[in-house]
């Protein structure tokens, strides 16, 4: 990776970087990152999807891609971030794949993390949006990458553990960043009404205890078509366009594009 000392100091937060985060795994964060990237592309935007889950990277697996270069090579210095970009023709967007089993981001040194964030910031200038799929959890490495985001999408479900961990991520973000742009996506909702109730629980807790008022980015309903698209390694918007769950994610994308 490049040495950040070679570049002038800059605010790492980029308005066009969207970090997709969750306090816990199993909430559909990676699938949402993929589908959101495709939906933003369908809005006419140039999009890069960045797999920030180094140890359990699976964006390329979900899409049936065989990336010749990946994030592991960027970290080791074998190639640059730009050289690691792979085109996903089925969705019309670019991907920087991770490398499963290569070790978690938490194992990287602070210098490596800073350099990785710097390369991501520089690469972001080539795109309308960069969707950064973060690893689950709230460790220092995840939060350091999240600092590159202009928008933080926190994915949760109605499960108590998911809500607790989403709140923990909000708490740490509020402590680190002044006036963060935090938005909540409620995934796997049984209905729109149920999703709105889930969001209100989280929002009220954040307002009361953190003085932070996150906005609702969208509600994505539970649908077996999601599992079907993952099993066939095809983007949902290609395999099941026009389905309720596809419309839900496209609504999230429209809100992102319409809100500066």
Task: Write out key terms for the chains shown.
alpha/beta, eight-stranded mixed β-sheet, 10 helices, 8 strands, globular, Rossmann fold, 260 residues
Strand content: 15-25%
The ordered string of helix (H) and strand (E) elements is: EHEHHEEHEHEHEHEHHH
Q: State the helicity in percent bands.
A: 40-55%
| Backbone CA Rg | 17 Å
The CATH topology comes to Rossmann fold
The CATH architecture category equals 3-Layer(aba) Sandwich
What would CATH call the homologous superfamily? Answer: P-loop containing nucleotide triphosphate hydrolases
The overall average pLDDT, rounded, is 88
Number of domains: 1
Silhouette: globular
- Summarize the main sheet: 8 strands, mixed
Number of strands: 8
Our measurement of the CA-to-CA distance between the termini, rounded to an integer number of angstroms, reads 31 Å
- Number of helical stretches of at least 4 residues: 10
- Unreliable runs, pLDDT <50, ≥5 residues? 2-10
**Class derived from helix and strand content:** alpha/beta
- Please write the CATH class name: Alpha Beta
For the biggest β-sheet, the strand order reads 3-4-2-5-1-6-7-8
Structural features, described:
The chain has helices at 29-42, 59-62, 71-76, 110-124, 140-146, 160-176, 192-210, 224-231, 236-239, 244-258; strands at residues 14-21, 47-52, 85-88, 93-96, 129-134, 149-156, 182-189, 215-221. With 260 residues, the chain is α/β, with parallel strands linked by helices. It has a single domain, classed as P-loop containing nucleotide triphosphate hydrolases (Rossmann fold, 3-Layer(aba) Sandwich), CATH 3.40.50.300. The chain has an 8-stranded mixed β-sheet, sandwiched between helices. The longest helix is centred in the last third of the chain and has 19 residues, at 192-210. 48% of the residues are buried. Mean pLDDT is 88; it is low at 2-10.
């Amino acid at each position: 990776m490049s040495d950040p000392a070679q570049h002038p100091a800059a605010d790492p937060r980029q308005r066009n970087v969207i970090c997709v985060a969750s306090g816990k795994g199993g909430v559909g964060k990676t699938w949402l990152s993929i589908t959101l990237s495709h939906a933003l592309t369908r809005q006419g935007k140039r999009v890069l999807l960045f797999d920030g889950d180094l140890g359990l990277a699976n964006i390329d697996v979900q899409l049936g891609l065989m990336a010749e270069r990946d994030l592991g090579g960027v970290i080791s210095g074998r190639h640059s971030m730009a050289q690691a970009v792979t085109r996903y023709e089925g969705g019309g967007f670019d991907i920087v794949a991770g490398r499963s089993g290569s070790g978690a981001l938490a194992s990287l040194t602070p210098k490596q993390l800073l350099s990785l964030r710097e390369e991501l910031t520089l690469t972001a200038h080539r795109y309308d949006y960069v969707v950064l799929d973060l690893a689950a959890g709230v460790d220092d490495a995840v939060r350091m990458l999240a600092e590159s985001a202009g928008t933080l999408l926190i994915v949760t479900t109605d499960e108590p553990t998911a809500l607790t961990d989403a709140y923990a991520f909000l708490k740490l973000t509020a402590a680190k960043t002044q006036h963060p742009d935090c938005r909540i996506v409620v995934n796997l909702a049984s209905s729109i009404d149920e999703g709105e109730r889930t969001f209100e629980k989280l929002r009220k807790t954040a307002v009361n205890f953190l003085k932070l008022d996150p906005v609702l980015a969208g509600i994505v309903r539970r649908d077996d078509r999601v599992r079907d698209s993952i099993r066939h390694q095809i983007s949902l918007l290609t395999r099941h366009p026009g389905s309720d769950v596809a419309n839900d994610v496209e609504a999230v994308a429209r809100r992102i594009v319409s809100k500066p």
